[in-house]
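Form 7-S
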Amino acid sequence: MHPPARSLLPSDTRRLQGLAFALAGAVAFSGKAILAKLMYRTGADAFAVIGLRMAIALPLFLIIAWWTGRAGQGAAPRVPLSRRERWQIAGLGFCGYYLASTFDFLGLQYISAALERAILYLNPAIVLLLSALWFRQRVSLAQVVAMALAYAGVMLVWGHDLDVAHMAAASAGGVSPGRAVAIGSVLVFLSATAYALYLIGSGRLVARVGSARLIGLASSIACVVTLVQWSVVWLGSGGTMGSLQGLPIEVYTLSLLNATACTVLPMWFVMRGVALLGASTASQIGMVGPLSTIWMASIWLDEPISTRLLAGTAVVVVAVLVLGRLGGTARKA
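Output:
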């Protein structure tokens, strides 16, 4: 006779829920690149894709900012923002969400979704390097080795992209395959750097304002700046860039998914995962992001999977995990 199955204790249920939220957030964030590249195949350019994404997400971020800023919400009372803090939030929104998103979507026109995700996961190494340069933060030998491994892993994935560069070059406006990989890599690296600056500058504000409220406020600012950019680019190019004319209904459907399921909703998933599991465990689960990108890109974009791609991605994931244990900061988006 088998003993009765042990019912789930509250702590077990909490952990399972945290794992589910963290995993869902990581996979959903990774889907952003897949949806963007699907829209590029319809003829949409990066300015139209990111413009539609931010236009749909803006009301949702405004709701988040309003709700989390209400008096009595959460464990702590509402914290009024000083003029200095408002400018800081504006700067963080411009750098961490507007610049990072713009560079990212521009870069996705040139490189594979797998390489984009691998470069973005260099973020902890970039944070560490910038902290060492600006704040004279001491870097240990183990951290140097982990950073070197991370960059070596990206180079492996970069080599894979060179082999299949003709696929990316098809949406790169006639740019040669090798040049497309180089341009896209630089743009996505700038995206990772912009987000690293956001992480470095947001530490004190997160502690005072709260992560959800900061995300709502900073992202709302980024959305507005992106919409201004979209209008300026469209007018400045005579309607040739950022245009929606002639695009199929599929673009609007994918944009709705991009703004909700791959932008706003995963932010909440990740925050719930962190609340239930802690930042360290949730960030480690987030390492599934690069792997999920590879498989989704293979299924939906027909991007090939090679041994070099898998090996490079594995090296990046391991290096980032090591950096996290040594004091790095993992990227969620």
